[in-house]
Amino acid sequence: MDPLELLDPRAVQVIQELEERDRWERSQDPPPEDRIYALHPDSARFLHMLILAGKYRRLLEIGASVGYSTLWLADAAHRNGGTLVSCEIEPGRVERNRANVRRAGLHGVVSYLVGDARQTLAQHPGPFDFVLIDADKTDYITYFELLMPKILPNGLVVADNVLSHAAALQNYLARVKAHPLYESVTVPIGRGLEISRRIR
Ligand SMILES: C[S@@+](CC[C@H](N)C(=O)[O-])C[C@H]1O[C@@H](n2cnc3c(N)ncnc32)[C@H](O)[C@@H]1O
Q1: Which of 8, 40, 82, 147 lies 20 to 30 Å (CA to CA) from residue 75?
Q2: What does pTM read for this prediction?
């Protein structure tokens, strides 16, 4: 079955609206401030499955936008008895995210760090066992280094767009693939996911 069939009908409704919106944006190319830049639907489904299989409970996403990835991650966190911390710099997107999460019935699961994640995360103690990085490509390494002490053993750090933005993320990939504390694999789903597992 499509993993979507596991979700509450309220969450399905919002997810389908956001998928429709994202498809429209990618065909019509509106200005950046009007776009939601949602994760690829295949990546969302794959990450939902990965979180359930790994029983991850302390989730973090960097780059929440209006809530497409938030809904998938929050649903998986909820099923595992966990929570999701969502980072977003644009206040307008945070408000739309909150409204979408509330409509989906997942508001008890998500808390927000509003502002520049390079600063808000520095103040957050963690720990996390699952992290999705889906923000400005220039900052991926900064997030990885900042989060290093806050990732639990066996925790996953997932970076989106490693195939669609291969040149911009070249240094990030080199860093995680050579890191002695991580095993790291490029998974060609959606726009390309780099999945890095902390080995101890
Ligand atoms: C690709 S979109 C995220 C899409 C989202 N994961 C989804 O699937 O719907 C990137 C988001 O990162 C946010 N962002 C960019 N730089 C940021 C920063 N320094 N701190 C927090 N959020 C940031 C942008 O405002 C934007 O909403």
Answers
A1: 147
A2: 0.98
DSSP 159-186: EE-TTTTTTTTHHHHHHHHH-TTEEEEE
Q: Where are the domains of the chain?
A: 3-198
First to last CA, the chain: 34
Dist. CA 167 → ligand 1 center (Å):
19
For domain 3-198, the question of CATH label 3.40.50.150 is answered with yes
C-alpha–C-alpha distance, residues 23 and 9, integer Å: 21
87 CB within 6 A, ligand 1: yes
Pocket flag, ligand 1, residue 69 (CB < 6 Å): yes
Model pLDDT for residues 132-172, shown as the tens digit of each residue: 999 999 999 999 999 999 999 999 999 999 999 999 999 99
User: What pLDDT, in 10s, does the model give residues 117-132?
Assistant: 999 999 999 999 999 9
Ligand 1 site, residue 136, Cβ cutoff 6 A: yes
Q: Which atom of ligand 1 is nearest to the CA of 87?
A: 21
Q: Is 65 near ligand 1, meaning CB less than 6 Å away?
A: yes
Q: What is the mean pLDDT of residues 32-55?
A: 97
User: Which pLDDT does position 53 carry in this prediction?
Assistant: 98
Return the sign of the alpha-carbon dihedral for residues 174, 178, 184, 185: positive
